[in-house]
Amino acid sequence: MDIKFFYKAKRGDGKVESGVVTSTDEFSVELMLIDKGLEVINIRAANVIDELNESFLALQAKLSVVGLKDIIVFTRQFSTLFSAGIPIVTIFDRLKSQNFKPKLKIALERISKDIESGTSLSLAFGKHPDIFSSLYVGMIKVGEDGGVLDIILERLAKILETQLDTNNKIKSATRYPKIVVSAIIIAFIILLTFVIPKFVAMFSKFNAELPLPTKILIFMNHAFQRYWWVVAAIVIATIFLFKQYKKTDVGKVKIDQLILKIPIVGALLQKIYISRVVRILGLLYKSGIPVVSSMDIVSEVSENEIFKRELLSIKNKISMGFAINTAVKESAIFPLIVGDMVESGEETGSLDEMLFKVADYFDEEVEYSIANLSSAIEPILLLFIAGMILIIALGVFLPMWDMIKIFKQ
């Protein structure tokens, strides 16, 4: 009969960990802990408090967020250990005992068990989509299929670091617009909640007619106060339906197509995707993997359905005998400079070097676009601010003007 035991043990780094496990007896628990490389401090039968604490920690781990920084640190350690020639199973035995977020540690424990049972690395990672993105899983698959996992892990860490740096720069560039928009929205909410009702009470005393803009604001105020639950339900339902639609093949294509058409943001994302795809193609080609196979592999890491379909289309054309540069030039997603550079690489026999240069060029374009993001957003921001101020002004000052007329009469 299995019994729940509470244990306390010391790890190799000197830190103490505790938990609740199910086993037949204390001796079995001790063997299990020693097998994990832990130094046993105490083992006893678990009580209600121990079980509640374990349940709370499990819930906390499930709700915790694994950030990009956590994934970068893990990937760097994974890359270093793998490059040192340490077997995968041993690597995960070491990594799962590191000081990572609880959610990541649980995922690594499960990945380790999957690998031990014979599951491929990419499939094991793919079981945790809330932690490891499709790009991450796709890159691991690229490394497995191409036999270049050491190179891919190093490249993956750099891609994630670039992504983190890009995210930080975008946050910095959009900080001012966010503050301004938030201030305007707060002012609008205060107007609806406190100012407009005062006008209603005041005008009702004089039996005066409120102007149309103020009536609209009053309607919005009443609608939100009385039917806020309807608004909340609509928002939740919209988010749910959007996520479900995105899971369908048609939905993913439509949404990814729409994303690439968003002003400013779409062009920036396209440059990021091109840089990523072209650099990985260069790595695969340099590793001796045929272009047709490389296109098939890299389509899985594009993270955009439009790019994925275009890359597969390029692959099919190359399979039919088209030159690589011709197939690339006929694609709608790659600018002409990409096709020209690929053509030059084919002619000189240095296709991998040309692909790396194209990736470097688009990395610089991304840097430039992010640096000018504030300037690009500014006209849209001004239009938004002007529109909100106009609504506020008409809603507040028109009734004030009418009040002045009433007092003059």
Total helical segments: 18
Helix content: over 70%
Order of helices and strands: EEHEHHHHHHHHHHHHHHHHH
Strand residue content: 5-15%
Mean pLDDT: 81
| CATH homologous superfamily annotation of the domain at 261-371 | Type II secretion system (T2SS), domain F
- Biggest sheet, strands in spatial order? 2-1-3
Would you write up a description of this structure?
- The chain has helices spanning 26-35, 48-63, 68-83, 88-95, 102-116, 121-126, 134-146, 149-173, 175-206, 212-247, 249-261, 265-286, 291-298, 305-319, 324-329, 336-348, 351-371, 373-408, and strands at residues 3-10, 16-23, 39-45.
- By secondary structure, the chain is mainly alpha-helical.
- It has a 3-stranded antiparallel beta sheet, sandwiched between helices.
- A hairpin with a 5-residue loop joins strand 1 (3-10) and strand 2.
- 23% of the residues are buried.
In short:
The protein has helices at 26-35, 48-63, 68-83, 88-95, 102-116, 121-126, 134-146, 149-173, 175-206, 212-247, 249-261, 265-286, 291-298, 305-319, 324-329, 336-348, 351-371, 373-408, and strands at residues 3-10, 16-23, 39-45. It is mainly alpha-helical and 409 residues long.
